[in-house]
Amino acid sequence: MASKEIHVVATFKPKADKIDDVAKILAESAANIHKKEPNTLRFYLLRPKKGNELIAVEKYADAGALKVHGGTEYFKAMIGKVTPLLAAPTDLKICNFVTGFEGRPSKL
Amino acid sequence: MASKEIHVVATFKPKADKIDDVAKILAESAANIHKKEPNTLRFYLLRPKKGNELIAVEKYADAGALKVHGGTEYFKAMIGKVTPLLAAPTDLKICNFVTGFEGRPSKL
């Protein structure tokens, strides 16, 4: 039976001088998510060594958890604050898990 | 002190009819990595619901672990098998962790 879990990879494209500001806003989001969204199972932010992007790696227990995430006041506030700081729209990829291991120790 | 860990997000762009073949080859890679690379702390494959891509989310204990990964025979064999099945070069992002939580339960 296919898993109900939903994975998201979101690539933010801040304006050249705004990447630290965007990272700070997303860090606030991460703290809210960690505290208030028990069914958001993973939410971390990566900064590629090259280029001007921030990548959020996310995992939700199910479609309901993703819906809760997108409906929160702090999510809407984050979008409001971040959007003017972006050079291009965020690349949002909603994904299914294919294979692999998500951490150690772990069964494959 | 900044973490030595290295995160990678690699987006594969298979030819339209080859995505399942690429997924299968990468699944073999994941099994090898899980078994033979104890310092590769995360390697899983996601398939966006839209488009024709596969995204590998990866985490290495340090630069040495990433080097070991890239030097293995099965990695080179995977590259050899996958490359002819791709429509465009793989988008490889080598990243630093910024913030967030990688799983539950977890401290932020």
TrEMBL record, chains A, B:
* PANTHER family cross-referenced by the UniProt entry: BIOSYNTHESIS MONOOXYGENASE, PUTATIVE (AFU_ORTHOLOGUE AFUA_1G12025)-RELATED
State the InterPro entries in the record: ABM_dom, Dimeric_a/b-barrel
Name assigned to this protein: ABM domain-containing protein
At the top level, the lineage of the source is Eukaryota
Q: Which residues form the ABM domain?
A: 6-97
Chain ranges passing through the membrane: none
Source species, please? Uncinocarpus reesii (strain UAMH 1704)
